[in-house]
Amino acid sequence: MAIRKVCGIETEYGIILRGAESNPITVSSLLINAYVSALRQQSATSGKVGWDFEDESPGRDARGFAREGAMAPEIETHLVNAVLTNGARYYVDHAHPEYSSPECSDAMEAVLWDKAGERILARSIEAAAEMLPSGQEIVVYKNNSDRKGNSYGCHENYLLDRAVPFARLAAQVTPHFVSRLIYTGAGKVGSEVAGLGPDRVPFQLTQRAEFFEEEVGLETTLKRPLVNTRDEPHSDSQKYRRLHVIVGDANLAEVSTFLKVGVTALVLAMIEDDELAGLDLSLAAPVQAHRTVSYDLTLAVPLELADGRRMTALEMQWELLDRGRKYAESRGLEAVGEEVGHDLLARWEAVLHALETDFMSLAGQLDWVAKYQMVSGYRDRHGLGWGDHKLAALDLQYHDVRPGRSLYEKCGLERLLAEDAVSAAVTNPPTTTRAYFRGRCLQKWAGSIAAANWDSLVFDLGSDPLRRVPMMEPLKGTAAHVDRLLHECETPAQLLEALGST
User: Fold this and answer.
1) Is the predicted pLDDT of residue 233 greater than 70, yes or no?
2) Cα atoms found within 13 Å of the Cα of residue 44, Cβ hemisphere only
3) Who contacts 221 (Cβ-Cβ below 8 Å, separation ≥6)?
4) Which domains, from first to last, does the chain contain?
5) Which residue stretches of 50-141 are H helix?
């Protein structure tokens, strides 16, 4: 049986400083430091828990080799890097503030802690405003393109069984990555490809499709692949693999995020259990098909498959849904969470049906449809062409993380989460993964933790040598496992002694 699809989302946010010339790395550092400093003042704690880079290995390739000339992502150990009490990592990645959610046990949790990240960025802006000179303002966008040819990512992560052959995994997940754009895209006015003006691409489903150039590969910033081969499990490498998915958009719509993570987790579970055998959706030209789907507002352009057949992205998703329902009947949905899994199947079917019959009916659920309705309505009212800069400005304003300035917030999309739950997730970790142990230790003993990463905590008790507590199992360290222990231990020394005796 497929293992539980522990998952998480890493989001690089767009950032600008208005009112002065700025270096985006400096501004991102200011933003994060301001937030962390405000947290310390509120909780009266000292010190900041930084990231432990000991286990970082972004150059390890799942195929056992890398393309000649390929460049692994650079580890920037000198930039701001903080670990939060909700179990997340908050840091400067290249020229962007990045929020990496804590490990979540299902898609609904992933939506919750991803949305908490948006609130953390908004609070960071407020904290940074206290440090800026008059007339200067930091603005942050949850989007994927600066319209100057630069794209920044929203990456998903899924726990997989190491025994699954990577070649089969890549071959079977690629058609899903290409076709899922019809509900995961964040929408974009125009194109950034030279020669593709608004007459040819007035609006597209996704912000990222134009920036992918290869089918499979290691890189994440140049020659981006549809399937990333980074082999960095952040867990027991003999048992697990972490699929690092770089092909998605940053979503604000909760339904889009739920489907993006949930359906992908289910497809991966089916691949693990070899339930997609006999369903060959291999594309003749996946990278080109990816762009074709993004440009196709009719959702009706057929894609050429490797065997000569032709199918639309919508038809491919219907095929996967059919397999998903059969999988649920034969094996159950434990890998993605039974209750969440059944909700996911129902939502997936309803969205596909609406896309097939009247995609505009999804303006209250999916990012790209909401944005298209907003932008095209403004265009019609003011008689503008698709190339008008005002439409691009509306596009950008949709992604503003400040609730009072966000056009996403004004569109009134369906919420899957209560706002009080999101507020709680800003400071508290999930109870169902090892993130709980990380977050609760930070809440209780931040001053005694020297560093942290996904699979360990490093304690500094003063006179003793640093003590590393490994957390190689993502589904251990949960509230059920450690809550009583954490409650009984008054000091980190007591915790380490108890852990040493268990």
Assistant:
1) yes
2) 0
3) 73, 94
4) 7-424 (3.30.590), 434-500 (no CATH)
5) 107-129
Q: What is the DSSP string of 154-180?
A: EEEEEEEETTS-HHHHHHHHHHHHHHT
Q: Which of 49-58, 236-245, 294-303, 388-397 has the lowest mean pLDDT?
A: 49-58
Find tokens 């650079």 and name the residue: 74
Half-sphere exposure of 383 (CA within 13 A, CB side): 0
Q: At 407, is the secondary structure helix, strand, or coil?
A: helix
**What tokens does 97 get?**
């503030």
Contact at 8 Å (CB) between 413 and 461?
A: no
Amino acid making up residue 232: E
Q: Which residues are known catalytic residues?
A: 93
Task: Tell me the backbone φ, ψ of residue 469, rounded to 5 degrees.
Answer: -105, 110
> What number of other Cβ atoms are within 10 A of residue 140's Cβ?
24
Q: Residue 46's closest CA among 467, 447, 481?
A: 447
Question: Which of residues 397 and 150 earns the better pLDDT score?
Answer: 397
Provide DSSP, 237-278.
Answer: TTTEEEEEEEEEPPP-SHHHHHHHHHHHHHHHHHHHTTTTTT
At 422 the three-state DSSP class reads helix
Q: Which amino acid is at 445?
A: W
E strands in 28-136: 50-51, 81-83, 89-93, 96-100
- Alpha carbon distance 140, 130 (integer Å): 16
* pLDDT at residue 148 in the model: 86
C-alpha 100/C-alpha 92 separation (Å) is 11
Rg (the chain; Cα; Å):
22
d(CA 38, CA 50): 16
Enumerate residues 6+ apart whose C-beta is below 8 A from 302: 310, 311, 312
3-state secondary structure of 91: strand
Query: 443: which 2 tokens?
Result: 């809440």
| Max CA separation in the chain (angstroms) | 73
pTM over 0.85: yes
User: Mean pLDDT, the chain, as a whole number?
Assistant: 93
Q: What is the mean pLDDT of residues 315-326?
A: 98
Tell me the two tokens of residue 57. Answer: 């290995």
Per residue in 200-211, pLDDT tens? 999 999 999 999
